[in-house]
User: Fold this.
Amino acid sequence: DTVRLREDDFANVCVFCGEGLTCNSFGNVLPTLQLQRGYWRSGPMSGDIRDCISRDACVGGTDASNYCAEGHDPNTPYCASCLDGYFLDVDDKCRECSSSEVAKTAAILTSVVGFVTLFLIVSTLKRKISDRDLWSYE
Assistant:
């Protein structure tokens, strides 16, 4: 397959329609090439089409500012980073940080710290009581 790219108003150049592009029409111009899902390019004037690191992070399309899936940062290569307010999960998808998730995490951490602190206090008191009992029999 080839796609006709118009590089400027004076010249037309046919180039190979490579992997990651949808070339189902004639007369496409470089800025509006249709990227397939799972592919990325640095901007509308780049013909360097790359595999996305995570297929789900790159949704494709014709608009360079919308190549990335929701929550993924379009200003980072391969949509690899998350926007503020999102976190990268184990499936390489950016998920929104919700206030309830933050509250759950804070509650769990607080509980763990509380139990560890309580354990250390009880252990220290037991040791002191045990040491005092040993000395009192002499």
About this structure: The mean pLDDT is 81. Residues 2-96 form one domain. Residues 57 and 93 are 7 Å apart (CA to CA). Residues 99-136 form the longest helix (38 residues).
